[in-house]
Design goal:
The protein has a domain of 81 residues. It contains 8 helices and no strands.
């Protein structure tokens, strides 16, 4: 029963969510809206469980003096302060929660991404080594796009005769824009289509009970 009941619930809910797109009338449209509301309720419960797990993990690290436990009090303090500020004064613009978010969370996030830029640059350097014609093509395209998107590319173009007066358009910038809008966009859409097909296949496997990994130990 522990295996059959979840499979039945998954099948019924999955089929109802699919049918509401093909039969947008009652009762399927109403059932689809109800299931969407229940999804929000379950997601909220999952967020609550995540909060409980966060507090438990960091309290355990503090009690056991685990590695880098000194950061755990900072995490818990920041979590409770932000939660209290949002619960008491709200999250609207100009409130303490918004002030702390804009002046603490946003700068720290920008700092993390700026540090990641060095790792991205290192990985790009290793990936763009022209070991074959594909890597050479990727390296050349990346070089043109970077020149067309950064200020130094425009400065280099202005050194050419007639470019400084604006008589000739910035060909490097135009080629970079074409690379981003045509080949890059085509590649992105191909990846998205492939990902969507993968999602559809996985969803059908779950609906028809072929994929059962989400059941955990129920099998």
């Amino acid at each position: 029963m522990r295996l059959v009941l979840p499979l039945i619930v998954t099948f019924i809910c999955g089929m109802l969510m699919i049918l509401q797109f093909f039969i947008p009338h009652r009762p399927f449209s109403l059932l689809g809206e109800e299931l969407s509301d229940w999804y929000m309720i379950v997601a909220s419960a999952a967020i609550f469980l995540g909060v409980v797990n966060l507090v438990q993990v960091h309290l355990m690290k503090i009690s056991q003096r685990a590695r880098n436990w000194q950061y755990s009090p900072v995490v818990l303090l920041g979590f409770f302060v932000m939660t209290a500020a949002g619960a008491v004064w709200g999250v609207e613009e100009g409130r303490p929660f918004d002030y702390m978010f804009q002046n603490m969370v946003v700068p720290m996030g920008a700092t993390m991404f700026s540090l990641l830029a060095f790792f991205v640059a290192s990985a790009a350097f290793r990936a763009f080594r022209s070991s074959n014609w594909r890597a050479t093509l990727l390296l050349l395209s990346a070089f043109i796009v970077m020149l067309g998107r950064v200020p130094i590319g425009d400065m280099i173009w202005r050194l050419f005769p007639g470019a400084a007066s604006g008589a000739h358009p910035n060909l490097v910038s135009e080629v970079a824009e074409w690379l981003m809008q045509v080949p890059n966009m085509a590649g992105q859409r191909a990846v998205m289509i492939g990902a969507a097909l993968g999602v559809v296949a996985t969803s059908l496997r779950m609906i028809f009970g072929i994929e059962r990994s989400y059941l955990g130990g129920a099998e």
